[in-house]
Write a structure and sequence with these properties.
Layout: H1 2-19, H2 31-37, E1 43-50, E2 53-63, E3 67-75, H3 84-95, E4 101-107, H4 111-119, E5 123-131, E6 134-142
Parallel strand pairs: 3-4
Antiparallel strand pairs: 1-2, 2-3, 4-6, 5-6
């Protein structure tokens, strides 16, 4: 578990300092809070390996019977931009064939992330201001099964 927490710390560090978001950024999350998420039975955890190295982690939060939310999607910086996110998200979506709606949020100003999610079929449904220069954009993807 500490290994996953360390990946989170490394992956979110650039965004923490870029936006000075010490309230919501997962990099600012304590280990105790991180550990408590593992006790929640409504959250599934995924660690992605590449060349025997844990490079990516994310949580899938089950919201009701047919809705899932991707949360805390992160990948080590040196593995970003190599297509891992798309591959893994597609595979995970297939693991939940009963899900009819997927949700996630990201920083609106991070255009590469917004482009990735939109390319994967996610539609922006709302925005919320977090602080000057930083907004969250909420996405959803409706799946017809």
């Amino acid at each position: 578990m500490r290994k996953i927490y360390k990946i989170q710390i490394i992956a979110y560090k650039p965004l923490l300092y870029k936006y000075q978001d010490f309230e919501y950024n997962p990099r600012a999350e304590s280990f105790e809070r991180f550990r408590n998420r593992f006790d929640n039975v409504a959250i599934d955890h995924y660690i992605i390996q590449a060349a025997d190295t844990s490079i990516r982690y994310f949580r899938v939060f089950l919201i009701g019977e047919n809705i899932c939310r991707f949360s805390a999607l992160f990948i080590l910086p040196k593995y970003q931009g190599k297509g891992y996110a798309q591959q893994v998200m597609k595979q995970v979506e297939k693991l939940y064939p009963h899900i009819t709606k997927w949700m996630l949020s990201t920083v609106k100003q991070e255009q590469k992330l917004c482009h990735l999610y939109e390319k994967m079929g996610y539609t922006a449904i709302s925005e919320e201001a977090v602080k000057d220069g930083m907004d969250l954009i909420n996405y959803e993807k409706v799946v017809c099964n």
